[in-house]
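Justification of resources, computational component.

The compute hours requested in this renewal are based largely on the per-chain cost of generating structure records like the one below. Each record pairs the submitted sequence with a full structure-token output. That output is archived, and it is also reused by downstream analysis tasks.
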Amino acid sequence: GSASATVGHGLGVVPNMVIVKQRSAVNDWWVKHSSLGSNLMLILDSTSATYNGTLGGGGGIADLTSSTTFGFVNGTSNVNNVNASGGTFVAYCFAAVKGFSAFGSYTGNGSSDGPFVYLGFRPRWVMIKSAGAVQPWNIFDSSRDTYNVEGQYLQPNSSGAEGTAATLDFISNGFKLRTSGTYANGSADTLIYAAFAENPFRNALAR
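The structure output for this chain reads:
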């Protein structure tokens, strides 16, 4: 219940993304991502644009700055969604690992010849969300789409079945946008992503 509280994340480095969900009450999934501005958050089960935890006494997850803990934005309402007194919570904490995972953002150009996003690996799984617009979250993976263009998506903010919209290519060192759709490539829009590698072999040694 205290905004001055901290929670150990055990990563040993500053997280790139933290997702918090209250288990003991019906509340949203709160997301803090390192590419979002100060005090800005998103909600995984919502299409909403970024939410500023300092406005209206809202609260939430604080900016990610510590290699040992994460904390909370001072507020009276949404701080209860991430740190309610007596509540039980689960937190998923992620940090980028070279050759294994990447978290960042890109700027959309509104063209079917969209931006290339460098990851340093061929992705297996990518999740994208517009930060500044009311748009759904979208998850793409190479298990359901085994060749480009990747188009089958799932949306964490929806209970709907998967949909299809040719969106991006998975390539050897990142992904390339192939849609002008605002859900993934809105002109001048900032979009955040989380990505995991198809073959995370950073420290593999051939014999």
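The chain has a mean pLDDT of 91. The first helix runs from residue 79 to 83.
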